[in-house]
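Data deposition worksheet. Section B asks for the primary sequence of the deposited chain exactly as it was used as input, without tags or linkers unless they were present during the calculation. Section C holds the resulting structure in token form. Section D is free text for depositor observations; keep each observation to a single sentence. Incomplete worksheets are returned to the depositor.
Section A, Depositor: J.P.
Section B:
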Amino acid sequence: MTLPAILQSLRLPVVASPLFIISNPDLVIAQCTSGVVGSFPALNAREAEGEPPMLEAWLQRITEELDRYNQTHPDTPAAPYAVNQIVHRSNARLERDIEICHRWRVPIWITSLGARVEVNEAAHDCGGITLHDVISNTFARKAIDKGADGLIAVAAGAGGHAGGQSPLALISEIRDWFDGPLLLSGAISTGRSILAAQAMGADLAYIGSPFIATTEANAVPAYKQMIVESGAEDIVYSNLFTGVHGNYLKPSVRAAGMDPDNLEQSDPTKMDFGANRQKPKSWKEIWGAGQGIGAVKDVVPAADLVARLAREYADAKAAFRGVVNA
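Section C:
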């Protein structure tokens, strides 16, 4: 199946994943103007009680700045942007945020933690497409049945709320019945791994953790430096902190006074992704990251990260052609 027009003509077949707290307009604009889809969670845009919705201000700024960029760079226009909606029932802001995104005609909607028909309908009504993230073939089928246009296969090794299945297995099972837009998430941090995702059957790569270590990201310097200094063996998979399994940096867990190799299990029935979600203060600086961070060597501007990925992707394609033609 041909990709939707909005996902064609990207500099790289990459969607930057929405990073909780970290993704902000500065990062999204830098990602889009570098040629990859930038994104942010709607819940990142927070305002004090009684103030106008910050989400409105963010969408206005992103829209206007990308429009200005496109006017001055008609031959290399910016990639589109995406907004992530947490559609779990605990998200008290969902209805309001859907209305705002619909009014601003958000081009790509990324949905997580539940498939909702009404969210897909709102996106389609304003001309957008929806991509739903899944950790299994069962959830993938449910998402498509409820009207999602495409899927994000969140495999083992992904940062944040990651699945536990091998990308080889997950992509193969989904592709057995689904020929629509398919993205792969899980330890993708080099141009070679982008090409590998496509070779497995995905259309695009879904990349998050490397963007934490960028100058535009809303992460404290210590978090960015920990990404640079860590590798796959420094990641722990746990559901303790949100009720949903995810990957976290072991050094940040130790700094919070816990043993990352002996974490208790959380009750998944108590997870809460509402705007006022509370958690112990000691968990505030427990930082998520995927297993691919070993490829991140420095804190750089997002444009430099995308340029590195583009060079590596071109080199990987050239090398692959050489192997095939040998």
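Section D:
The CA atoms of residues 116 and 256 lie 36 Å apart.
DSSP finds ten helices and ten strands in the chain.
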